[in-house]
């Protein structure tokens, strides 16, 4: 077994997100601070929903869409008809990550490469269309691919089939936190002998049924313009805007990557996860579960809170959730919190469910490569009540040798990932 914290490096990044298709397009857009949350264009937005408590919830009118994505440009048409948009995005991101890593699974034993993805939403658009046909036209109108296209494991399976990956594969379903959990699982698979893992998450929940489900959570922004949308840690934050897309990676055994001349963008040095075990919708009233996840991730990496250069926060965008995260950071970092840079650039493109933390990992790796950290997205009026040293305005040049990334999933999931430089 490889030494803990020394075994898994990320050698390839594939991004398909509102910020762009490809890692460099995403990075350029993020550094420019381009707000990609906007009124939905792909369908008529639903009417206001009702929360489980019976209160009216804002209609989901804002979202981050992947503009200009045409599946025919990336995929075989025969595969397109079998799969949901969520899988189209994942297949495209996987191809980009493999190309970026210059890793060809066919050059290795098929059991040396695996696929471990996360999904918090599944194949929404495909499933909604086929269920509509069932109720309007009867069961004979439902396509045969309905049985697989909506399923959470569909993207993992399709990537494995397309690239011939026979290693230990799977799917993690833990809401937003899954985007980090799958990377923790990838590192575990590598420690057990797998050479490389395609890991990460994309989502495609900008569809009528999925957006209605989001609205019932009561956590969506009531804003109707991009500037009024997703703005975590702001004085005016009132919720998040959903989005689609995410990022996939090639995670390799460090020694194997070195043998083929690849150092990697960064190392997965530490990972931990906890659960609130409190409520199916509300977060725990105290921040201890997230505190434990951060501390255990640091312990796993063999580091202390003093070693962290910057935190990529979860930044849910509601006052309750953001305050809890700020309190958790305060318990972990103590007096240092007043000077520790904190960012959440993903709010430029919306909250992508499991795709959000995966996209944050991509952004963090590029920040590590270039020594510059983008600010909190769409934040013009930070609230000092959080007590955070938020990066705002322009990107900041700074040390990026150790980066902490937090993620929290709806229902009480908490995860933390520590990335360290390979230089």
UniProtKB/TrEMBL annotation:
One Pfam short name: Ketoacyl-synt_C
Key words of the record: Acyltransferase, Transferase
PROSITE patterns xref list: KS3_2
Alphabetical list of InterPro entries matching this protein: Beta-ketoacyl_synthase (IPR000794), Ketoacyl_synth_C (IPR014031), Ketoacyl_synth_N (IPR014030), PKS_Beta-ketoAc_synthase_dom (IPR020841), Thiolase-like (IPR016039)
EC annotation from Swiss-Prot or TrEMBL: 2.3.1.179
Biological process according to GO: fatty acid biosynthetic process
SMART domains associated with the record: PKS_KS (SM00825)
Domain Ketosynthase family 3 (KS3), chain residue ranges per copy: 5-421
Protein name: Beta-ketoacyl-acyl-carrier-protein synthase II
